[in-house]
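Bump. Still looking for Branched-chain amino acid ABC transporter permease structure tokens.
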Amino acid sequence: MGTFIQLVVDGLSTGSIYAALALAIVLVNQATGLINFAQGGMAVLSAYVAWAVYGWGVPLIVAILVAIVFSFLLGAVIERYLIRRFEGGDPDTAVVVTIGLLTLITGICAWIWTYNNRLFPSLFPLETLQIAGAVISVRSLGTFIVIVAMMGVLQALFIGTKLGLALRAVAINPQSSAFSGLPVGRLLMVGWGLAAVLGAVAGVLVAPQLTLTPGMMDSALVYALAACILGGLSSPVGVVVAAWLIGVLENLAAVYVPFIGHDLKIAVPFILIFVVLIIRPQGLFGRKAVVRV
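Sorry for the wait, here they are.
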């Protein structure tokens, strides 16, 4: 039982990393209707900014706040001067643009800071707690709490605020939103900026656990996209639950399913995706899209 609890705890900790990035992807999708494959690269760049500012002798929390402000401006500028040129056209073109942006940002990070591993300080103490036979690090527990808070804020934003409802309206039908008097361009910039802020939070949470490198979020991005598909792009709560489910099932399968083991555990989320898409194509918590014809 102790081993099982430990695997579940470790899976929730790993899943929280995927969830942080998945929430940023959901926010961009809800605000613009696009999937931003560059979200991981933007998170890494923000983490590097925090690391560089911290290196100047600034307190860590202030360095993270600077990185958050930088991230919001970065997301807004990218939407205004790059993505907007492709919005309203072929969605596949915009997807290719975000993939190219990911490559560009990763290259810029490598050019400025090289590919050497950098040690990023943790917001939380490095002590551990022992609960029900499982060893839980305070850092993992802190990450879990932050992700739950982010999930709640994002869900409340989309459901209970005028800004969230306006972002969703713009994503569904920008033309009708413009006719209704909504500032479509400004809302799109705000959506990308807020998503970049979520990515920045993900970056500074992940960097102490993985060490800071230009490709730090590459594998996490794959799992985050899997969580978005499983949970449903319309549900922040759904993608977080899906990310935790992926982390836990991956760990359990690696230990308790002999033919999977640690080498094939990466296939677990893709098997889940295959099953869910057959049974419920909109995701576990997603809503069916109704289109008038």
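The two ends are 55 Å apart (CA to CA).

Edit: fixed formatting.
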